[in-house]
Amino acid sequence: MNKTYVPKGQVEREWLLVDAEGQNLGRLATKIAQLLIGKHRPDYTPGVLMGANVVVINAEKVDVYPTRLDSKVYYHHSGYPGGIKEITLRRQLEKFPERVIEKAVWGMIPKNKLGRRIYKNLHVYAGTEHPHYAQQPELVE
User: Fold this and answer.
1) Taking the model in full, what pTM does it have?
2) CB 114 within 8 A of CB 49
3) Are 60 and 22 in contact (CB under 8 A)?
4) CATH code for position 131
5) Whose CA is closest to 127, among 59, 62, 55?
6) Contact indicator for 15, 55 with CB cutoff of 8 Å
7) Which residue range(s) make up the domain with 135?
8) Does 5 score more than 80 pLDDT?
9) What is the DSSP letter of 77?
C-alpha cells in the first residue's frame, strides 16, 4: 500500500509569463488555470498551494470567435433593485481586456478558500509591459 505524498515545509513557487496574443480564450484560460493550481508539477498535491505565479501579457490581443463577441454577455449587479448591468464581450475587450481573461480563469479554479488564494497569483496586463521583471518570469509556450 502506497502512502500519500504531502510536501513538507515551504513549496518553491515559480513565476511564469504567458503571452495571450493570438491564442484562443478558452484554451488559454484552461492552461493558465492548470499552472495556477499546480497540476503541471510532478509533486502536485490537492489542498496545498503549489501553483505558479502567472503573468499574462497582451490580453487585448486574445483570439475570440467573431460570433461570440456579441453573443457572450457579462452580468453584474449593484445590489439595488433594478441594478443589473450587462456588457458584451466585444465592449469588455475594448474597455477592460484584462477582466475577460480574469473572468475566464476564475470560472476554472475551485470556489473555496484555496481557490481564492490561488486566484491572487494571477496578474493580467493588456499590453506587453508588466511590473514583474524583477521576478524573471519564464515564458510558457
Assistant:
1) 0.90
2) yes
3) no
4) 3.90.1180.10
5) 59
6) yes
7) 15-63+93-140
8) no
9) E
